[in-house]
Design goal:
mainly alpha; two-stranded antiparallel ribbon; two-stranded parallel sheet; 8 helices; about 45% helix
Length: about 200
């Protein structure tokens, strides 16, 4: 633990709570739009690993239609709608995760929480990303988001674990805002989001 960590948690509670309250009208409007355009449920819930690999339930706005083979809705690309793509590109789908921040599952800044099935695919060095709470945004996201490789992303996650500080968090938040406005790095080349992580080569 670093001396900054307790202060960081306090900031998460204060800023996360304020953002949750201030964004409530927007979230209500988005919930109505998601219900009309994508149907129910409005929120997407999924188990993700947090600090020390502890599992929690992540909440986001839905951005995809439900799988339906009869309608040809099988792959992520087929299920993604223009409205869902807009939510993702603007990161508006992430607003419900502020509740995860206030609860203590996540931080405003940290490595992004990935899938539970990836846990046994990390190298020991990559697994260090779980030494801190996962974040709504992070160093990997402002360094290329989904347009960089998995190895590059995990290297940035571990770099953040080692260098985390108030100044670095403020820079990441600022870079995140710039990137969201530009809508850079939303997806990997040839992918709607990011390809499956199958593991890295071990020495």
């Amino acid at each position: 633990m670093k001396p900054y960590d307790p202060f960081k948690r306090g900031l998460d509670v204060v800023v996360g709570s304020a953002a949750l309250v201030l964004s409530a009208p927007l979230q209500l409007a988005l919930a109505v739009l998601v219900r009309r355009k994508l149907g129910s449920p409005v929120l997407f819930h999924q188990l993700r690993p947090g600090k020390d690999g502890e599992i929690f339930e992540l909440a986001k706005f839905r951005t995809m239609l439900e799988p339906d083979e009869s309608r040809g809705l099988v792959t992520d690309e087929q299920r993604m709608t223009p409205f869902g793509a807009f939510l993702r590109s603007t990161s508006l789908d992430e607003l419900p995760t502020l509740w995860n921040v206030v609860r203590g599952d996540m931080s405003l800044v940290g490595p992004r929480p990935l899938l539970v099935r990836y846990l046994d695919r990390y190298t020991p060095e990559q697994a260090r990303r779980h030494e801190v709470r996962p974040g709504v945004t992070g160093l990997a996201q402002v360094s290329g988001r989904n347009a960089i490789t998995w190895d590059e992303k995990f290297a940035k996650d571990v770099e953040y674990v080692d260098l985390r500080s108030l100044m670095l968090d403020l820079k990441i938040v600022w870079w995140t805002l710039v990137q969201v406005i530009r809508r850079d790095g939303i997806s990997a080349a040839g992918e709607v989001t990011m390809s499956e992580f199958s593991g890295s080569r071990r020495a």
